[in-house]
Amino acid sequence: MPDRVLVTGVSGFLAGHVVAELRDHGYRVRGTVRRVTPELAAHLGDVELVTADLAADDGWAEAVAGCRFVVHTASPFPMAEPDHEDELIRPAVDGTLRVLRAAAAAGVERVVLTSSLAAIAVGHSDRECTEADWSDLSACRAYDKSKTLAERAAWEFARSTPGFELAVINPGMIVGPVLRAAVGTSAGAIRAILAKEMPGIPPISFAPVDVRDAAAAHRLAMEVPEAAGNRYICAGQPVSMPEMARMLATRYRVPTRTLPAPLLRVAGLFDGTARAATRFLGRTERVSAAKARAELGWSTRPVAESVLDTAESLIRFGLVADPGRPRSAA
Q1: Which domain holds residue 130?
Q2: In the 8-state DSSP scheme, what is residue 284?
Q3: Which of 145, 147, 196, 291 is the catalytic position?
Q4: Domain harbouring 291, CATH code
Q5: 79 lies in a domain?
Q6: Is residue 147 among the annotated active site residues?
Q7: Total structural domains in the chain?
């Protein structure tokens, strides 16, 4: 009988690809959702769906029962900054500990936690970061702080729980094809460029990772014995949004003009998405994924492929209108 894996937050962008990766490698998958809908059930097919909320204990013992592994992807990830940071921090920290406690009580062999570069690189733009680094909380916004504190709490739990195995994946900005007609925060930036919603492209950059490669990293961290007790950066070299726009412009008619930083700040006074984007101004995520490559045997695809595949999927699912071919290709 194939091993069963619980994937939390199974309706999410990354979680959907983790499910596909696990099924492709012969695992049975159970997934948690806050509410089961016919559309989600039809989309996920043979995934066993259970109801569990990170804000409550109910359902978690049943969710982890009989699972050899847990992949905990669920965590709040809004584009706009919340009114109060605890709106993100408390669900992230408390929810993570709730999942870990249930897994430990059920004798789960290993939990793989989805963290973020937000727990590693914030406040360290002057140098390349590795897994030995932690974000400077004094430089963190609410989301960055939620990921940092949730991961720290997870490691403290693992250290204080004999025999408990934890591995952590720290992905950068996740791009890649959506699997259904839903746009999360990660694909939202590319959708906004295709939809020509911005007067210019924000001069901000990220260290991206393809969602399919991030999903593979989670599986590898689950399977490789030596991964227990380790965190793994999964991201490439920094790529700016204007660079992403130019990648899109090789296939689509999209704007490529850079929006000056002062104008982005002004827009942030009136628009929550623009306000959230300002937190990346002057911030460069320089990180090394050498550890994941060496210890997990992890590899990545080119960024341009990821960006164009994202665009193609958004158009295919009707989440944005096809902006047409570039004039040079007409």
Answers
A1: 4-176+209-237+286-301
A2: -
A3: 147
A4: 3.40.50.720
A5: yes
A6: yes
A7: 1
